[in-house]
Design brief:
This protein is of the alpha/beta class. The protein contains 20 helices and 32 strands. The structure holds adenosine-5'-triphosphate and magnesium ion (MG). Adenosine-5'-triphosphate binds next to strand 26 and strand 27.
């Protein structure tokens, strides 16, 4: 559809970028032909206490074993803090925090962050937390969240962050699954002018979490909260008496750094386990290359630390690279939908990384809130989380980036630890809607349903044929589920669960989850393609497409459509949209049903949960499956109520 739009790398960008096309090619070739040599050099991005001699020892066969840098020793917090201070950058801002309230912000230097991390690490050790113990972090987007992560890393405790928007039940099930002994939370969080009762939620959750011995509570809004004697401890009182230095634990490269549960788009969340050495190398490598990061720049990833994007691209990647990372407590729509751009101007943000769900929401409000702000500091724009529709991509590129800034559409997963497929700003020509090419060291492939490798331009299941350092090592406590989920569908390959198309230039186009593929009269269709056609209509803000049972065609196409603010859903518009999709894609893609959707069911991280929409379309509304990670359950009720053909 949009294959023919090729946006070349601008000469000015190519000539100043760290990696240009020739260098990218050379890196990719070397990483494939001599992975040992390539990673022996790249691993020096992180500070080793003992340099590894063994580089790669991985097998996707049988029991599946993935080890990188296995005899190396390091501490992730040292790479993120100590060595920058030793290099004379202690006074540089590490975390630039912007509050929910537009009048609140703060700057924490590398030296200050180091001191805060050490104090908390000492306090945790004093509470008996040891290397390998699991610590749950349930915090809003405040500096304490990064402090808590790095303090865990400092003493070798394994953090498991639960997004602050999750309910007591979701929090409890994650604490139980990994048997955390310590919970770190806050009195309340703030989001879009409202308060989130974190401590109250935590108290509720802990009724069913006997493994928790202590709760450290950060003061954020200052509201009075119940403190259970002997269990709950005030962060400030606890840390004030601790020293500002703390001996970092020597960690083996393969010792766990964190557990993180996936978003639950496709089913029950999985406890993804990442280890220290490979993850840190991958976080630094990808943050550096994909964003072409340069010293002194202000870098902003709008994700929450509760998602893997926040782990790798707010905390570990940027801090490993000595960057100034902006941490944002608020939401894009508050106080108004110009907030992102107001913050960009206020802090002179150079690199901006967000999600398609945010871009589509902002598009609904038109260009005016964007154009009100200058945005002249912006240099690179990024997208992650879902396929970005070409229409949204172009809006991001033209309206937000004024056609000056390359857009990096980054495909990756909680499981992959960091970005795997993405353009590099100075090296890869872009196509709106395509994640383009794999990063050096990543070997994607497409296979058909029988696992046969597809060559050249093709469409199929996206697999990765060899390991990369940032790969997850296991599902926490359930290695059999790890092998079963990722390595049993196609022998000897990591199966991503996503479908993709590769065009004649070798560019990858993610077509959506394989489970979401629709089969209409024998024609396989990715949901992303039909959705993009709908979103390309000027009156459509967002769309979700699923298959529904159909007597003749096997599956029919059921579309949920959210209109642009102010547009009325009429029968004439419904007909117009059906005709529109027919014209954009072809008669085979003719929608069978269009339901007007004031809202779509999304995960807390903003991804559309198509499995729920599939159930509604099939009228199987009494078996919606795991809905614990749903952002707004009311949306589902509304859709069930107004189902087409009910
Ligand atoms: P679960 O695995 O529990 O169902 P999830 O897959 O939503 O949850 P994440 O790891 O947060 O959990 O999301 C990874 C998925 O997000 C990818 O498999 C892919 O479907 C989608 N995704 C991420 N980035 C992109 C992108 N740039 N283009 C297309 N899809 C993307
Ligand atoms: Mg997934």
């Amino acid at each position: 559809m949009a294959d023919d739009t090729l946006i070349a790398v601008k000469e000015a960008i190519a000539s100043t970028a760290k990696v240009d096309e020739a260098k990218r090619r050379a890196m990719a070739e070397r990483a494939t032909s001599d992975p040992e040599g390539f990673w022996r050099e790249e691993m020096r991005r992180v500070a080793w206490m003992r340099e590894p001699t063994k580089i790669k020892n991985t097998s996707f066969e049988g029991d599946v074993s993935i080890k990188w840098f296995e005899d190396g020793e390091l501490n992730a917090s040292v790479s993120c803090l100590d060595r920058h201070i030793e290099a004379g950058r202690g006074d540089q801002v590490s975390i630039l925090w912007e509050g929910d309230d537009p009048n609140s912000d703060s700057r924490t230097t590398y030296r200050e962050l180091h001191a805060r991390v050490c104090r908390l690490a000492n306090a945790m050790r004093r509470l008996g937390v040891r290397k390998g113990d699991r610590v749950c972090i349930y915090l809003p987007m405040i500096v304490e969240a990064a402090v808590a992560m790095l303090a865990c890393a400092r003493i070798g405790a394994v953090h498991s962050i639960v997004f602050g928007g999750f309910s007591p039940d979701s929090l409890a099930s994650r604490i139980q699954d990994s048997e955390c002994t310590l919970l770190i939370t806050a009195d309340e969080g703030r989001r879009g002018g409202r308060k989130v009762p974190l401590k109250t939620n935590a108290d509720e959750a802990l009724k069913t979490c006997p493994s928790i011995r202590h709760v450290i509570v950060a003061k954020n809004t200052g509201t009075a909260v119940a403190m259970q004697e002997g269990r709950d401890l005030d962060w400030a009182a606890l840390c004030d008496r601790e020293a500002e230095i703390c001996e970092p634990e020597r960690m083996n490269a393969e010792d766990p750094l964190f557990i993180l549960y996936t978003s639950g788009s496709t089913g029950k969340p999985k406890g993804v386990l990442h280890t220290t050495g490979g993850y840190m190398v991958w976080a630094s490598f990808t943050h550096d290359l994909v964003f072409d990061y340069r010293p002194g720049e202000i870098y902003w990833c709008t994700a929450d630390v509760g998602w893997v994007t926040g782990h790798t691209y707010i905390v570990y990647g940027p801090l490993a690279n000595g960057a100034t990372t902006l941490m944002f407590e608020g939401v894009p729509s508050w106080p108004d939908s110009g907030r992102f751009w107001q913050v960009v101007d206020k802090h002179g943000v150079n690199i901006f990384y967000t999600a398609p769900t945010a871009i589509r929401a902002l598009m609904r409000d038109g260009e005016e809130p964007v154009k009100k702000h200058k945005r002249s500091s912006l240099r690179v724009l990024g997208s992650v989380g879902e396929p970005i529709n070409p229409e949204a991509w172009l809006w991001y590129y033209r309206v937000v980036g004024d056609e000056r800034c390359p857009v990096v559409d980054t495909w990756w997963q909680t499981e992959t630890g960091g970005i795997l497929i993405s353009p590099l700003p100075g090296a890869v020509a872009q196509k709106p809607g395509s994640a383009t090419l794999p990063l050096p060291g990543v070997q994607p492939a497409l296979v058909d349903g029988d696992g046969k490798l597809l060559e050249g331009a093709a469409e199929g299941n996206l697999v990765i044929t060899d390991s990369w350092p940032g790969q997850m090592r296991t599902v926490y406590g359930d290695h059999a589920r790890f092998v079963q989920t990722y390595f049993s569908t196609f022998k000897g390959m990591y199966f991503t669960g996503d479908g993709a198309r590769r065009d004649a230039d070798g560019y990858y186009w993610i077509t959506g989850r394989v489970d979401d593929v629709i089969n209409v009269a024998g024609h396989r269709m990715g949901t992303a393609e039909v959705e993009s056609a709908l979103v390309a209509h000027p009156k459509v803000a967002e769309a979700a497409v699923v298959g529904m049972p159909h007597d003749l065609k096997g599956q029919g196409i059921y579309c949920y459509v959210t209109l642009v603010a102010g547009e009325e859903p009429t029968e004439a518009l419904r007909k117009e949209l059906v005709a529109w999709v027919r014209k954009e894609i072809g008669p085979i893609a003719t929608p069978d049903a269009i339901q007007w959707a004031p809202g779509l069911p999304k995960t807390r991280s903003g991804k559309i949960m198509r499995r729920i929409l599939r159930k509604i379309a099939a009228n199987e509304t009494d078996s919606l499956g795991d809905t614990s990670t749903l952002a707004d359950p009311a949306v589902v009720e509304e859709l069930v109520e107004n189902r087409v053909g009910r």
